[in-house]
Amino acid sequence: MNNVLVIDDEPIILEALYNTLLRMEDHELFVWKAxxxxxxxxxxxxxxxxxxMTDVRMPGMSGLELVGLVRKQWERCKIIIxxxxxxxxxxxxxxxxxxxxxxxxxxxxxxxxxxxxRVIAEIETIMLEQDLMTxxxxxxxxxxxxxxxxxxxxxxxxxxxxxxxxxxSIDMLQIPIRRDQDVIVVVGRTDRWPTGYLLKEKLLMxxxxxxxxxxxxDSVCRIVTFIENGYMVWLIxxxxxxxxxNRQEQDLITLHxxxxxxxxxxxxxxxxxxxxxxxLLLSKPNIGWLSIAHTFKEMCAWLQxxxxxxxxxxxxxxxxxxxxxxxxxxxSPIDIKRSMNHLLNLLESGNLTSFQKELADFFRSxxxxxxxxxxxxxxxYAHLSGMFLSYINNRKISxxxxxxxxxxxxxxxxxxxxxxxxxxxxxxxxxxxxxLAQGENKSQKQEIVDExxxxxVESFSSEYISLTHLAKTFxxxxxxxxxxxxxxxxxxxxxxxKQLRMTRAKELLLVEGKKIQEVALELGFYNVPYFSxxxxxxxxxxxxxxxxxxxxxxxEVRSVMDNK
Length: 564
Prior knowledge:
Residues 450-549 form the HTH araC/xylS-type domain. Keywords: Cytoplasm, DNA-binding, Phosphoprotein, Transcription, Transcription regulation, Two-component regulatory system. It is built from 21 helices and ten strands. It is an alpha/beta fold. It has four domains: 2-128, Response regulator (Rossmann fold); 158-321, Nucleotide cyclase, GGDEF domain (Alpha-Beta Plaits); 333-437; 502-564, Orthogonal Bundle (Arc Repressor Mutant, subunit A). Mean pLDDT is 79; it is low at 318-330 and 553-561.
C-alpha cells in the first residue's frame, strides 16, 4: 500500500488528478488531496506519505519550499513536481532537491499513470533491498536468541551435565552472571491470564513482570531471566565484591533473606500495575550450577501439585518440607466420576448453558482443596478429555476441531500451566461443539464477503466505488480486502467492480438523450477518450459503436411493430 498526497490550488486540476489516481486499480493506493501547502502539511503530520504530487506555484508556500519540509518528516518520500512553467530556474531547483520527476501542465492522464507506475516500481525495488537487509539482521538476532533458548532448555532439563559445558556456554553467550558462584533460584507463575490474551500480549507481560522484579533487586545483585515451560525463572547472585569465599557465602544468605522480604512487595506491584496475580517460589540460598535443573523441576512440581491453591502463593526455602495432603473430603473419586457423568449428559443433550455452569462450579470446588494430589489431577483431566473425545469420535467431527482448537490439549496434561487454562480450553471446546451441532458454523469470512458484494451491487448504480472506499467502509486494509474477496468468490474485487462498471455503462449508454461524456462523468471518468479506450478494451467496441448498434436493433424492432 502506497500513500499518495496530491496538492494543487486549482480545484479542477486537483479533482482530475485525484480521480485519475483513484482509478489506478492495479496499484494499491490510498490517496489524499489538499488545495494548499498548509493543508497538505496537516495531512502529513498524522499520515505517512510515500508519494507527493505538488504544484510548484501556490499562495502562502511554494511546492519547492514544501519539498524541504517533506524531506525532514518523510525522508524517503518520492516527489513529483507539477508546473505550468518551464523555465530553467524551477527545473534546476527541483533537480537539486532530488525530485523524482518534473511534469509540465497540462498533463495527459496517461502520462500521470505512467509516471506513477514508474515511481511505484522504484519504491518496490528499494523496499525489496531493505527487506533483504532486515531479514539478514533478523536472522542474526534469531540465531543469538535460539542459542540462548537452547542454553536455557539444556540447563533446566539437566542436559548440561558438567560444569565445563556450563562454563563454556556462559562464556560464549556472554551471560552476565558468574559461573564460579552458587545461585538463588526464583520461579514465577502467572496464576490467571485475562480472557482473550494473545501469546504476544503474554510475552509483553513477562517482560513487564521482569522489569518490576529488577526494579527491586537490580541494585543489590546480579540477575538473569529465563522463560521456561511457561514459568519465569530468575538466577540471582550477590553483586561483585572483593572478599573471600566465606564472605561470599554469607552475603548470599543475606541476599536470600532480603529477597524473601521483598517478594510480597514484588507481588503487590505486579498486581497493582499489571493487574495480574502471580505466584513466586524462592529456593535455598546456595544452589550449585549442576543442581539448578533438579531445583527447577522440584519448584515447578510444587506449583503443579498446588494447582488448586488460591492465587498469589509465596513459598520460601522450606519447599522440601511441605507434604502434599488431600483434604477434599467432599470430592472423593466416586463424586468426581458422578460429576463427569452429569457433564457428559449435559454435553450430549446440547444444554450448553447448564454445561458451562456445571463445569465452572466443578472447577471452583476443586480450587477449594489445599493440595490436590497429582494422580487425582490426572484422573480428572483424563475424565474430561475422554468425555470430549468420545463426543467428537461418535460424530466424526475431529477434522473440524483440528483447525479451531488443537486436539493435542486433549492428550497432554502438562500443556496446561494451571487449571484456569484447562477450564478455559474445555469451555471453548464445548461452545464450538455446540455451534457445530446447531449448524451455525458458517464461515465468518464468507459473511464479510457477502456483505461487501451486496454493498457493491446496491451502491454501484448511484456512484463509483473505489477500493479505498470499500476498505474504509468495512474497516479492512485494501490488500487484505482484495485477497479475502478473491479467495471466497474466485474473482478479484477489481474484476468484479469492472464488470459492474461496464454493466452500468451499457445501461447508461442506452438511456435516450444521454451523451457519452455524461456517462463517463457519472462513472468517474473525467477524460472521455480514456473512458472510450477503457470501454473498448472490456466490451470490444467503442461507446459510440455500442449506441449505434443498439439504435439499429431498436429501429428494427420498431419497424416490425409498426408493420403489425
